Amino acid sequence: MARTILEVKGLKKYFPIAAGEQKGKVVRAVDGVDFFIREGETLGLVGESGSGKSTTAYCVIGMYSITDGEISFKGQDISMHSSKRPLSIKKDIGMVFQDPGTTLNPQRSVKQILSLPLSVHKIVDKRDPEEQLLKLLEEVELPAEYLYSYPASLGGGERQMLAIARALATDPSLMVLDEPTSALDVSVQAKIINMLLRLQKERNLAYLFITHDLSLMRNLATRIAIMYLGKIAEIAPTETFFSAPRHPYTQMLLSSIPVMTEDEDALKPKRVVSRGEIPSPVDVPPGCSFNTRCPFVTDGCFEEDPAMREVGTDHWVRCHLFA
Amino acid sequence: MANANDKANCQGTVVKRDKFIQLKRAWYKFSLNKTSVIGLVIVVAVAICAIFQPWLAPYPHHAGEFVDFANVNCPPCKEHWCGTDGVGRDILSRIMYAFRGAFTLGLGCLALVVPFGVVMGLIAGYHKGQWISTFIMRVTDVFLSIPPLIMALCVCAILRPTLFNSLLAVSVSWWTWYCRLVYSMTSSLRNEMYVKSAELTGASTAHILFREILPNCFGAVFTKMTLDMGWIILTGASLGFVGMGEQPPIPSLGTMVADGAKYIPGQWWISICPALAIMIIVLGFNLLGDGVKDMLSSEE
Amino acid sequence: MTQTIVDIRDLYVQYRTFDGQAKVLNGVNLTVKKGEKVSIVGETACGKTTTVKSILRILAPQASIPRGEILFNGSDVLKMGYSELNKLRSSGASMIFQDPTMSLNPVFTIGEQMEAVIRYSGQSGVEQKSVRHELAVKALEETAMPDPERILQSYPFQLSGGMRQRVCIALSLATPRDLVIADEPTTNLDVTIQDQVLKILKQRVEAKGCSLILITHSFGVARETTDRIYVMYAGNMVETAPTQELFREPLHPYSRALMSCIPRLSGGGMAEGIPGRLSNYHNPPKGCRFAPRCPEAMPRCHEEKPESIDVGREHQVACFLYDKDGGK
What we know:
The structure holds 3 protein chains of 3 kinds.
Chain A: E1 4-16, E2 26-38, E3 42-46, H1 53-61, E4 68-73, E5 76-77, H2 87-92, E6 93-96, H3 100-103, H4 110-120, H5 129-139, H6 156-168, E7 174-178, H7 186-203, E8 206-211, H8 214-218, E9 223-228, E10 231-237, H9 238-243, H10 248-256, H11 262-267, H12 300-303, E11 309-312, E12 315-317
Parallel strand pairs in A: 3-8, 3-9, 6-7, 7-8
Antiparallel strand pairs in A: 1-2, 1-4, 4-5, 9-10, 10-12, 11-12
Chain B: H1 4-32, H2 34-51, H3 53-56, H4 91-126, H5 131-145, H6 148-158, H7 163-189, H8 193-201, H9 205-241, H10 253-261, H11 269-296
Helix pairs in contact in B: 1-11, 2-4, 2-11, 4-5, 4-7, 4-9, 5-7, 6-7, 7-9, 8-9, 9-10, 9-11, 10-11
Chain C: E1 4-17, E2 20-33, E3 37-41, H1 48-56, E4 63-72, E5 75-76, H2 82-92, E6 93-96, H3 100-103, H4 110-119, H5 129-142, H6 148-153, H7 161-173, E7 179-183, H8 191-208, E8 211-216, H9 219-225, E9 228-233, E10 236-242, H10 243-248, H11 253-261, E11 309-312, E12 315-317
Parallel strand pairs in C: 3-8, 3-9, 6-7, 7-8
Antiparallel strand pairs in C: 1-2, 1-4, 4-5, 9-10, 10-12, 11-12
């Protein structure tokens, strides 16, 4: 079995509210999350907005300093903020954000954008620096003449490919992808996902893939984790996840997805109908945080927060139903 | 595969084409608003007068020490479009010469003020919430609390009133506006994802400030510079009006208005013509500034 | 025969820009019958929103309509005067936008905004405040909103995204309408909330017996909400068919390519995507606008624009691969 390269234990990230009506309270964006990623695999971290999936990713890359918990990468502790991390760690973890329109500086050319990680990590090829950049462009299937263009003259998909090239420049072994295709059309998404799959194979990359799209994860992820209000509700290998979803929230998510074929319709759990909305992470309900929407709720759910339990190989569920 | 030849080719053509199209697009956006084109015409005309005064002015030697008692207080006529003053000097020639001083003041002041203010603003904005930011911004507040004209008057009263000193006087308080502008832009730009991603890559603070953030402030700074040219010239004229500007016999717009004021209403042109000139410059730069703002805004 | 509510015939719309005229709509045909739920599916910048905005004549000032006809209940929208247009917008058709934070005014309460809409709808009896209030409460109750009285007193920012979008649905159905246009109403919402909002939208539209035009980029959403689907590409309706039939047998190469790109919940891997990118509207291809990206393009496709032809009951396709009898 492949080596574990990223391990997150008891990760918590609270944001204090500094002003306004709710001053003094905290936003519990991530509230005790455990997961790990093995070399060369894709972990899909799925959840609704407000579930804390992006915050988790930002903690992993060190954009936020974490409140509590431990993050280790290849056995090395990286729980600190990115400004305190050694360069070698920054080099080994790549990041691609959601909206390529905002992650590429409009005032800098493609060449400047791609050169930055190379010069920071001192891996510029002195003999032919340009050739090195052209290779990067080729790797993400962008034409060479883009080297002197600005992001504004690129299409949305092409910008995202450029952002991926920038993340690849330092040859990382883990890529954190925060909804990289959710702002793009499906025809472009297909291209980018195929490219990511190819790169993963070629470079044995591990992906932490943040998304809200379960259909996409079905075709991409090795394992899937569902987040709800800062906690992981269920984590399972992709096959198991779709054939035997256990957590009521997973079932609710699956039953809500609009699909195209009858095969897919058959996969949707019929018993669970979507109702209610995700509560604010400022006022997390006591007990199990899903108790406001769960169709199978019992008295115990209001009193005690369930613990993660293993119900199959690599399949963990956090619900009293499986106690 | 791209060989060396290809690379050289694509570099040349793409860069040129991109720059050319950008220029054309910029001009298209600028020219959508006709008043800004008028502003540009005014500013260019004034600049030409200022630069080529010795050749364009009807009586270039009237700019300095010159007396012609035969033509004293001559009202506007064919020979003297703006008339002559109390010692017979052609007012139009003197205005054109004064444009030089006004432009020198404006450009010189901006050259001093902009780099300093922008760097201060960048540092304060990027480190918002830390002591260095608080320190810079409180110093800025102190300077802002003193009206620029009064500050300039004090400086000019202490030093000798010359063009250079009035330039210094105006600059002392003017940098704060650039500091504030860049501060507010930087403190929001530092949260942009491209800045975050440069930080995560491990780029140095200097790189982030000057390569990632600064180019995105250029638009606003440039717009403000255009507008400020007008205001600085106006402030300079006010200094001249109270006798703290360039000293006679060198013509300055403010001094000319002040000198002519005692002949009003009889010989109105001595004072009104330079006053109109001030108005036209300020108007020109303001209209131009609006156009520059439209040009640099992203919307179409 | 059922009455036709909207009938767009051969509509062309262009926008004036720096690079010249952007010829966005390129002969759009669209019909919506009374009580019918229709969706327009297409990718970003294919002209979906331009099409529906032209029905209400709320296009940007740079837009012009060189050719075409838009009949709403039989009268031509393009020839309407100010008062007629006002009537069309206040009581004929209503629109639900993608982002409810933009379409609800942040400084008025939901109640004030709903009452204003009801007041200017031209119904009788709405001059009285109590009547308007009752109608607003009723409209909110119908969209399954808990505690309507409290919601009427709230400001938009106090509600969640899903709630705001439900308020917009209530707002557009508070008074009788012939047509509701929903422009990507659930794109910004989470999938569980999207499910709830779409169900309510469908149910309310059916209960009121009005027609619906739903714009979406998701075939799944279109499939679960509407009776008939238009597939749009680069300013053309390339195919229209009843929902079931379109999914059973998509005919246009673009419909097929787009459908294959969508990742399936049942797995099966990712498709290749569609080669190339959307052509420039300033200088569009001469013939079929999809020809440069089409795997089955013939020489003719690059020269002539294919007309829509009937290939089945309510099934039309604009492609030279097919002839009148539905054969290939």
